[in-house]
Amino acid sequence: MVSWLSRFFHYLDCHFIARKSLPPLKEVGLTCFRELVYQEFKVKVRDAVISLIDKEREGEQIDRALLKNILNILVENCKGEMDYYENDFEATLLEDTAAYYSRKASGWISEDSCPDYMLKAEECLKREKVMVARYLRSSSEPKLLEKVRHELLSKYASQLLEKEHSGCRALLRGDKVEDLSRIFRLFSKIPKGLDPVANIFKQHVTAERTALVKQAEDAAGGEKVFVRKVIDLHDQLEAFVNDCFQNHARFDKAFEADFEALCNKRVGRSSFAELLANFCDDILENRSEELNDEAIEEMLEKAVKLVAYISDKDLFEGFYRKKLARRLLFDKSANDVHVRSMLTKLKQQCGGQFTSKMEVMVTDLMLAKEYQTSFEEYLSNNPNADPGIPLKVTVLTGDCWPIKKFSNLNLPAEMVKCVKVSRGFCQKERNGVHLNWIYSLGTCKVIGYFEQEPKKLKVTAYQASALLLFNSSDRLSYSEIKTQLNLTDDSSSSCG
User: Fold this and answer.
1) Which parts of the sequence belong to the Cullin family profile domain (predicted)?
2) pLDDT tens, position by position, 113-125
């Protein structure tokens, strides 16, 4: 009405009032309203408005337009300032809100599970936001939400999170991603609200780590499946950190610290570095023959992630390089593509120096195939040089392969010619190269002619050398074999 009268008497307001230096009509009207109406009814109106708000919280229908108009009057009454709104209405609304949700919380905390309680709390916070948007001032939103969070969450944080069958620990054990995400969303808005959640998560990670190690140590052959279980645990915990806890530093730090401890612990007689190298070796050989190419790549990717947690990465490199050497030399890898892919992953994770020797090893085997083709062409073009025995020689870059044992085995005459031909060709192809022969890695196919029928035997170079001695002798003692082959007691065990 004051606004309507101001417009109606606009001419008087602009000319007559101004000349007389009287207060403007709108100001006079609002002053009269404050003194005659507002001061008389403000308490009753405030209580009525708060009562309607509580009814809407309970799900009843109310006249929202009426509430909006009444609350607008409070602001108009103070020339657009918020004094009347904040002092005469908002302060009491906040007290009522605290009391309302205190009553609700006291009932819910004893009746509901943690997930159900958190769901109700989230719905209450959403409802308060909607209420502000409909008829309250936007400045009320943070104050209202703070009251709701305090009454529903802060007061009952410990009781909620520690609920025996439905608290945070139970949710972690049950992999309840949605419920854990809700806990993080709600408690992240409370001062230090994430501290108890992060502590419980850290305790969970430690408990899972400890249980995993104990299970591997107690079970026969538990080390074989240990790495796979570590990978599964890493996947689960990483999903918690990324999906539920939004990669928050507190949770990420707890996860990383415990996993570093896990990946640097011995399990039984083996270090984790050795177990991880063995696991990668099994995958690359695909011994189970159940994994397709995509699954192998995925598993290798997960395994390489664990390498990052190993403090002594050179230890893993040593074990892995030995396994790689065995696979390369004896053609044990299921797919060469996966071998190179694994090296790429390790290079990205640990740097080029970490994989430099292994890359040379792979290159050596590629060059060895070319070398063998050239060698066979050489023999076909030089029949006089052919030793008469099919021969395959693999030339390796000595410093890069984890092979230290060279022997002075006295080869039988049949094999000496093979070595001479191969040495001559290699020195011709690679001028100035110095060769050390590693007979311990050699294999031979030998045909034994017995009375009943010939037998084809696949044996080591040492075993073949020992067998060929019997072409000229029917009976030889252990000492005689050792002397003729120039073996020590240690190396002679290779003949067994």
Assistant:
1) 271-490
2) 999 999 999 999 9
Tokens 């570093």 belong to residue: 260
Report, as an integer, the average pLDDT of 34-59: 91
- The answer to whether the beta carbons of residues 226 and 275 sit under 8 Å apart is yes
End-to-end CA separation in angstroms for the chain: 113
Q: Which two tokens stand for residue 491?
A: 């190396």
User: Measuring CA to CA, how many Å separate 460 from each of 138, 413, 495?
Assistant: 85, 17, 8
The Cα 136–Cα 456 span in angstroms is 94
CB atoms within 10 A of CB 297: 17
Contacts of 125 (CB under 8 A, 6+ apart): 145, 148, 149, 186
User: Could you give the angle at which helices 222-239 and 272-285 cross, rounded to 10 degrees?
Assistant: 90
d(CA 406, CA 343): 28
How far from 248 is each of 190, 192, 193, 267, 293, CA to CA, in Å? 15, 13, 13, 31, 34
pLDDT of 404 over the 80 cut: no
pTM comes to: 0.80
